[in-house]
Amino acid sequence: MTAEPLVTLTDATKTYSGRKVLREVSLALLPGETVVLTGANGSGKSTLLRALGGLTALTSGSRRVRQPGERRFAVGYAPDHLPKLKLTAREYLGHMAAIGGMEAAGRQERIERLLARMRLPGGIDRLRMHDYSKGMLQKINLLQAMLHGPDLLLLDEPLGGLDREAKQECERVLAELKSQGTTIVLASHEPVWRDDIADRRLAIAEGRIVRDERGGRPASDERPRWRLVQCELPEGAGPTAFAEWDGVLRTRPEEGGRMSYWVRSDRSDALLTALLAAGAAILSVQAGEGETDG
Questions:
Q1: Domain span at 181
Q2: Could you give the strand order of the β-sheet that contains 152-156, starting from the edge strand earlier in sequence?
Q3: Fewest CB within 10 A of the end CB: N or C in the chain?
Q4: pTM for this model (two decimals)
């Protein structure tokens, strides 16, 4: 028997200043599944996350939520960055817990449990958030999204600024949440998430879902191999050109109309052929493996 969707978008459209950022997106999230959402900058990833969480009003279309019994449906949202506030982590998390309606009696215990779960240092209160590194801010960002035990956890670039060890900690925490039945959607340009975490992979381009794949590959210790292709695009080609080409892991616009593409090694020749056929000038091709932090 197929589970009833937790959240369903039907023909969801969002327009900003006359520009359609989401275009008739229909999407259903199942309870307990983890979805990785990829796409170039400006493709609509962040807007789709907010639409799924009911954090932005749709211009047209609808959002439907399956209520979890007697209690209120809870959404946790971590934006792509936190402001550097003049608060300690505990002060900030305490304010966020109060804003979310958490009872004072259990508030501090919940915060301490989450800080320990992320293995943050005991002397964290010696600094204010405006003195934190980007990686430390990302950890606090993730914790505030987890405060209320969300049914739906939405993460916008959760690995940004984290070193390898911290990324592994993040994956460990997300695997625990997944095992507890939390539905997770994360927008990321990271080439690989552990396949025992990601059940489903979506790609978005120009406000539309262009790829929806279910099922993961068996977990492997092999580091992904890729090539970094740097090129000069032909006149008229925008920054999203070839972003959804099969095997493209990540893209980055450069100055002067240039683009960088990280592409799986086994698909790089096909991308190079397509770029040349479109009139692009190939500037360099570099081989690499592991995460595309460059």
A1: 7-214
A2: 75-78, 152-156, 183-187, 34-38, 200-205, 208-214
A3: N
A4: 0.70
